[in-house]
Specification:
mainly alpha
Amino acid sequence: MTKEVREGFWQDEEGNWHPERRSGKDRRKESGGDYPHAERRRFFRRKADRELYERDHKQMISDALNEFAKEHGGRL
């Protein structure tokens, strides 16, 4: 028994064929640069993590300096 495959269609559990709703292009295959998609994803994740890290730490440092200034009469 061979399983039929129709390009651009998918088969439900009852054996009915339906047109494929996904776009024709597979974006995962397009690297968009000189490195593979997985590496590109890691690069952007690291960049976002770095931006959050810098923003959060700047706020934490500012808060710590303000608390220190309050404890020492407004002088750093």
